[in-house]
């Protein structure tokens, strides 16, 4: 037997062994060799294939697991929304989280709560779907509703079985985090050239998972730890019960998870994890605190994109000292002028920082900061670094940092509004920086979510005059011959961008409202407006009705003023008309449609005993009701608790039906 025959024989043996051991592990859940022994087989196979590429078998383990390169990632819709956590940064924030929960549930104290606390892994969120015990799909978080289909990419992750053992529900979404251990990250980076190296383990995990060449994903030691549950055909009582079942299915949960019974215990455990995090072999950026009881979670519900029943306590911000070398200014989409310090580069948490926000000129004066001063900078989580305080003055320079008399970009007039610290450029529709920032906001993940169209691409195409306003992105095809010749572009990248733009053309009403970049209209207010008006044209026609807007529960005076101002401008109306020619804008109503209060207008007054007023409002909204803040002829029901006050008299005068708390609860089927 010659050398070639020996290598072929060994490759066939390895292919058979790897296939069998994968089957033993993933399908039967009965591995017959250790992870180390399995990895040794894979490594031997990879070395031989690399050394003798002409001898790679059709049944190669790498090919078997999808070495075929995908054209792109397909989109995958989650059966239930993937939410993100609100952040807490200190002990008072934790106390506030508990107080809010107690108040919302109308409890006397927090004795009823058990909390599951676990480290917040800095990785990539993943949603696994199992039907009848079989893994049918895996998707990234995406925008919370639609992610990327990475089912084939995760087949080699050992903590993700292809089939669940007995006692599985008919349907379940298992949610968790994909990550790389620090040690594996260092090994991976050591094999890459300088241009290909990853900045940190999270980027490495995301880059490894989102590979069109599936064999690359499978060659990297990705890990998975579950931390949540989406839609499920079985009702678990508590998180700990769910975690116990996950272990029975060979899906390992976090071994640093702990059950706590009070704020004091949470803070103690937080400090414990913070102290030992440097010794944990994966990056964590905080502690997640979740109320253990699923029924209480259901009652607490969600506000915007965040659950009320969970919070992420971020670890203390990382700090460093450096020198301010100069100061320049950024102009945002609403005209806000932000002074930015250009710094002597400094390493902060493994990232080289050369810029930091100075917030506004009141803060600069308060901190007595100047160019060439030694300052402390801070970076908490994903927040942009900012200058926190002065460390040492530079005695050689006495000139103070002064606010610009005109916009630093377009030279137009600026204004500092009453009761605001922010200086604004008044050239709303002519300032190039505001135009660029509006386009960046429009194509961003929370808006149209156009993949591959980031800040760099927007600025490049804007400066070359291929786009000037948001609707221009839908006409880029006519510049194809010019754009594909630009640095960093080509036929494939341009084609991918056009596909991404086309995929974004169906958008929910709340996301469209958010994408317009109206001042004070964030994700929550956009949802409130979408729920209230349900159609874009109805919102536009009602946007000058201050009485109607003031009667919308949850909408504040600044937001109302901004809505009226935005829709009064002809340029904004024309933009919307232009966008409607390209987009399909739909209202997605996830509320109950078969309830007594569906599409009814409710006003609450007085003190409720069974529920807090906030929970009652939230419950009514989930059943399809609209909540108004004052009585009018449009009101269908007044829900009156104790000490109802003047609203009950007004309701009687105009013939509004009045329900007490018990009647409300019966009608709402609680």
Question: Could you give the topology of this structure?
Answer:
Elements: H1 3-27, H2 35-51, H3 61-64, E1 75-77, E2 87-88, H4 91-104, E3 115-121, E4 124-131, E5 134-140, E6 146-148, E7 171-179, H5 182-190, H6 201-209, H7 214-219, E8 223-232, H8 239-248, E9 258-260, H9 263-276, E10 284-291, H10 294-300, E11 302-303, E12 306-307, E13 310-314, E14 318-331, E15 336-348, E16 351-357, H11 361-367, E17 374-379, E18 386-392, E19 414-416, E20 423-425, H12 432-443, H13 455-463, H14 480-483, H15 491-503, E21 506-508, H16 509-515, H17 523-533, H18 536-542, H19 546-550, H20 557-568, H21 570-580, E22 584-586, E23 601-605, H22 613-622, E24 626-627, E25 637-640, H23 646-653, E26 657-660, H24 661-667
Parallel strand pairs: 2-13, 21-22, 23-24, 23-25, 25-26
Antiparallel strand pairs: 1-6, 3-9, 3-10, 4-5, 4-7, 7-8, 10-13, 11-12, 14-15, 14-17, 15-16, 15-20, 17-18, 19-20
Feature tags:
670 residues, alpha+beta, seven-stranded antiparallel sheet, five-stranded mixed sheet, 24 helices, 36% helix
Protein architecture, described:
Strands 14, 15, 16, 17, 18, 19 and 20 form a 7-stranded antiparallel sheet that branches. With 670 residues, this protein is α+β, with helices and mostly antiparallel strands. 36% of the residues lie in helices and 21% in strands. It is globular. It has 24 helices and 26 strands. Helix 1 packs antiparallel against helix 2 and helix 16 packs across helix 17. The N and C termini lie far apart (78 Å).
